[in-house]
Amino acid sequence: MLDLAAIAIRFQGSTSEFRSNRRLIVPAERLLETLKAMKSEFGFDMLVDITAVDYLEYEGATDRFGVVYCLLNTGSGERVIVKTHVNDPDPSLPSVYELWWGADWMEREVYDMFGIRFPGHPDLRRILMPDEFTAYPLRKDYPLKGRGERHNFPVITRAES
Amino acid sequence: MSNPLSDNVFLTQLDAAANWARKNSLWPMPFATACCGIELMATASSRFDLARFGAEVMRFSPRQCDLMIVAGRVVMKMLPVLQRIWLQMPEPKWCISMGACACTGGVFDTYAVVQGVDRFIPVDLYVPGCPPRPEQLIAALIEMQKIVQTTGTVTGREFRDRTRATGPVPLELDEIRRSREATFVDQLEIFQPPKIGAN
């Protein structure tokens, strides 16, 4: 089993565990370095998912966004969750597309839903919402029912169709 | 041989004859985006057999259809597609909004789901249900046949006067108020969709 505490010390991070989910929390500026080491040194060759959490108005939270990388070692079956935090304005993280090509659409989804940019991504544009959409819907300051986007279309009447 | 024509000649109005032909050969355009589409398929298949009402010819090309059945929720990205398909259908044409989501958005009251297709395209008949049973769709089709028979004209001139949208106002005051009330919103940014037929 991987010694996460040693890795945390090496990258100035911390660890936590919940129901056998082992987590490694690192500062954003050490993230790329950490993930490179996780892939090349510790054999985490599969990136399962990238997702994000908006901690706006969350009790006890000090950072606005948490970004979560779920890693899998396909050799040993071990899983580790690497987490980091970014803040307004202009939350951004280095792209891990060069490490795992599967990060392409995952980073686009995080960008689309949370507005976190990934410099180094080859084609960072919206993946779920229309290109013309201006907001980031999964941010906590975005109203559930939107800002009128869903109703701003031309109306076709019977006579003109 | 006193009146040889009486059994062979049938006098009617041209409008009524055209309506009779049209109502018994409605060609649906199945715009099926969700579970209502499954019920629509069940309605078309042998147990419920839409062919009994002459409407079994589901065409996936809008140019060949005259009855649009919107079955399922329509999201922001799909609405321009729906409108384009509606415009591509030749006159005369009718529209059935099938199920709670197509009529009102149903339970999906979120930023991306259109709250009823009748806000953006004309709808002749609403079918309630989540999803509606095939019997309900068949009842709606029979009702649609009545509409075609009683209001139709051979040149489609009954559509000419329907210049006003019949659905709710797309962007209600309530919607605008709600978006202004949301915290952290300095100014109202409203999504501008591409114009229909722009490219």
Largest interface chains and counts: A-B, 28 and 48 residues
Total beta strands of chain A: 5
* Major β-sheet strand ordering of chain B: 1-2-3-4
Sheet/helix structural class of chain A: alpha+beta
Number of domains of chain B: 1
- The total beta strand count of chain B reads 4
> Quick check: average pLDDT of chain B?
84
Ranges of chain A where pLDDT stays below 50 over 5 or more residues in a row are none
- What is the tally of helical segments of chain B? 6
| Largest beta sheet: strand ordering of chain A | 1-2-5-4-3
Quickly name the level 1 CATH class of chain B.
Alpha Beta
CATH topology of chain B: Rossmann fold
List the total number of helices of chain A.
3
Short précis:
The complex is a heterodimer of chains A (161) and B (199). Chain A has 161 residues and is α+β, with helices and mostly antiparallel strands.
Question: What features would you describe in this structure?
Answer:
The complex is a heterodimer of chains A (161) and B (199). By secondary structure, chain A is α+β, with helices and mostly antiparallel strands. Chain A has a single domain, classed as NADH:ubiquinone oxidoreductase Nqo5 subunit (Beta Polymerase, domain 2), CATH 3.30.460. Helix content of chain A is 18%, strand content 22%. Chain A is elongated and about 70 Å long. With 199 residues, chain B is of the alpha/beta class. Chain B has one domain (14-181): Rossmann fold, CATH 3.40.50.12280. Chain B contains 6 helices and 4 strands. In chain B, strands 1-2-3-4 form a 4-stranded parallel sheet. In chain B, α2 links the parallel β1 (28-32) and β2 (67-71). Chain A binds chain B through residues 129-130, 132-135, 137, 141-161, and chain B through 76-77, 79-80, 83, 86-87, 93, 109-115, 119-122, 159-167, 170-172, 175-176, 178-179, 182-185, 188-196.
